Amino acid sequence: MIKLMSLFIIIAFVSCAPARTPSQRVYDNYSYSREKSPRLHVRTPTYKDTYYVIKTNDSLWKISKEYGVSVKEIMKRNRIYSPGRLKVGQKIIIPRRRYTAKARFVWPVEGEIINFFGETINNSINKGLNIKANPNHKSVIAVAEGKVVFSNSLKGWGKTIILRHASSFYSIYANLNDTFVNEGNIAKKRQVIGELASSKEGDYILHFEIRNKHIPYDPLRYLN
């Protein structure tokens, strides 16, 4: 039964066309435009919301990870249209946490989320996150301990790793240049399992998914 489910996960994943091309940067849900003002619009916080003052070297990804709130929620709450234009001293609202989940995972790679779960890109639905990593941090780690049920190349996705975790959860890591685990191995939490491939533009982008059985879920619900 477990092998059959793993095979079903692989088939379901392969049937999905890649959600983006490496050069795209999409913020469809926020009507992103380079012509919009980069000024920050702060609204009155609701109960349990928190203020945060931007410091040197801060990024929305870093703030998101620290507070356990998705970048998407922070952008929407503060009407931020250009996440790369934060200014030191700006005050933003950290929304109250909206998700609770039994399974908690660490981030597979450090970087900037350039495509969110559920976005329609090139006429297909993105079933995970696309994370643009720092060129100096190309290593991909296991988000939790799990068994390697797939470690090979997939059409349209390059080298891909799929781990099976407890409670019927699976994590998927695509667009890899190299893999360091084999099928049947047990990957420990935070173990380096692969390295990202470079696109024609020189970007290192991880496509990451979390599924419960064969159903994809927003990874931001589960990442710490």
Write structural notes for this entry:
This protein is an alpha+beta fold and 224 residues long. It has helices at residues 2-14, 60-67, 71-78, and strands at residues 50-53, 91-94, 111-115, 120-121, 124-125, 129-133, 139-141, 146-154, 158-164, 169-179, 186-187, 192-196, 204-212, 215-217. It has two domains: 19-24 and 101-221, Glucose Permease (Domain IIA) (Distorted Sandwich); 37-94, LysM domain (Membrane-bound Lytic Murein Transglycosylase D, Chain A), CATH 3.10.350. Strands 3, 6, 7, 8, 9, 10, 11, 12, 13 and 14 form a ten-stranded antiparallel sheet that branches. It is globular. The model is unreliable at 19-47 (pLDDT under 50).
Could you provide a short overview of the structure?
With 224 residues, the chain is of the alpha+beta class. The protein contains three helices and 14 strands. Strands 3, 6, 7, 8, 9, 10, 11, 12, 13 and 14 form a ten-stranded antiparallel β-sheet that branches. It has a two-stranded antiparallel ribbon with strand order 1-2.
